[in-house]
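Contributing new records

If you add data, match the layout below exactly. Sequence lines come first and carry their own label; structure lines follow with theirs. Keep one chain per record. Anything else will be rejected by the validation script.
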Amino acid sequence: MTSGTIADRYDVIVVGSGSAGSTAAIASARTGARTLLVDRLAFMGGTSTAVLDTFYAFYTPSESPQRVVGGLGWEIVGRLTDEGVAFERPNTYGAGTGVTYDQETLKVVWERLAGDAGVDLLLHTWATGIRVSGGRAEAIRIWNKGGERWIEADVIVDASGDADLCAMAGVPYDDAHASGVVQSLSTLFRLANVDVARAGAVPKAALWARMREAAATGDYLLPRLEGSWHRTPFAGVVMIHMTRIPNVDATDPVALTRAELEGRRQVREYHRFLRDRVPGF
């Protein structure tokens, strides 16, 4: 891991430490390339540790799933399994087997893999610019509490999740929001002290029917009349995906702020519905 100083030049710089960025940085460093990984959050993993708790796409979507992913991804699953905080379960919507895990343990797994590989890690740091010469990216500008500086690299990987560096470099992209077709946002949440056996005895169709009935009374503001929950590695704790915040331009910080507030409002409402209307909650 970081030696305490950040160099002025690297073989490879990766911006964004989500699953893609972390994997890229670890794989790069394992080849012997001097590698810097930059992220604005306080931990590695991006969405895999900040939001989600399940890896999908490791298996084919069928009644007889076959694992089709290996490499670093499966190495991570192995480490989580060894820690006793991962298990396989059917995808909620039938899209294939998922691997559900504990996010806090995954943060440490990412860090250990990066440290063992020799990755220089810089958290709490934003990439605010990119320098391009002759059609090739050659440096990024970063900002953190230590100030602003440029760092050069032979290869720069944009794993920001939103192609931020590409946009800064002038690479053309499609604006999904302008097309009128954009995926809704959602706020996932966990509940503890759930009687998983009782809650699990309510089939999905019956759960959705209860949502429709509750919304029809006018007492519950439920914008999405479907959704799901699943168990976690911890007894009595479940992850819930029911909220929906549609038509948000995620490149507009004002709209994104409103969406964050709306997501938390919806969490409270779905929590109230579950407590009132669904056994086990």
